[in-house]
Amino acid sequence: MQKYVVKEIQRPTLALLQQYHQLDVSTVYEAQGKQGIMNSRLKPILSNKMIVGPAVTVICQAGDNLMIHAAIEVCKPGDILVITTAGDCVAGMIGELIVTALMKKGVQGVIIDSGIRDVRQLRALDFPVWTRDILSQGTNKIKGGWVNAPANCGDVTVAPGDLIMADDDGVVVIKKEDLQSTLDLSNARLRKEEGTKAKIDSGQISVDFYNLRPVLEAEGVVYYENEEELLQAKHS
Questions:
Q1: Domain 4-188 has what CATH class?
Q2: Burial class (CB in 10 A: 0-12, 13-18, 19+), 211
Q3: Confidence at residue 162, expressed as pLDDT on a 0 to 100 scale
Q4: Which positions make up the binding site for substrate?
Q5: 65-112, pLDDT tens digit by residue?
Q6: Which residue, 171, 141, 119, 152, is CA-closest to 72?
Q7: In whole numbers, what is the pLDDT of the chain averaged over residues?
Q8: What is the pLDDT of residue 1?
Q9: Binding-site positions for Mg(2+)
Q10: How far apart are alpha carbons 162 and 176 in whole angstroms?
Q11: Which amino acids are annotated as binding site, given as ranges?
Q12: Which residues are noted in the entry as Mg(2+)-binding (predicted)?
């Protein structure tokens, strides 16, 4: 299979990105039908961070970060680098030097379905990374791969230019062809949540305004007034 680098990709407009910055991962994930969430193995190294931007995708050979170096050249300010490997790998694919170069290019953060190292330095740089593993093991720079090809990261296929949103809840992918529809659905969900918050503020409880009592009854859940009544029921 031919290995390649695509230099230019289609990116979302600034206006669209600004609107997505008003949202969060959980809202977007729910709004787009519980789709696009990367698996729970990917964890942030920093708390209270959120990044939103277009994906520049990288597929490396396991244990080799040559294509990450190739990707640095094509990154633009605001991009998010999405890295995966052909073959399982938890070696430290990026560290302080690569991140310093990415910051120089204006990259917002990295999503990597592999390993990283120099974590203390990356935290000192205040650079957001969501990673599967942390390991000092180094890599080679001798094997070709792909930059801006469709990549499977965290069990989700990411196309170059897809929108990546990452926060403390995880990482979600919004397909570039669905950006406007997902934004509309997310905003509608926010409006619905405001209504729910108003109900809670007024003293209503969720088991009633979600009409959950019939569900509890259908599941055979029995209410007892106190522990004594429960004990009596058990011994009757």
A1: alpha beta
A2: exposed
A3: 98
A4: 95-98, 117
A5: 999 999 999 999 999 999 999 999 999 999 999 999 999 999 999 999
A6: 141
A7: 96
A8: 85
A9: 118
A10: 5
A11: 95-98, 117-118
A12: 118
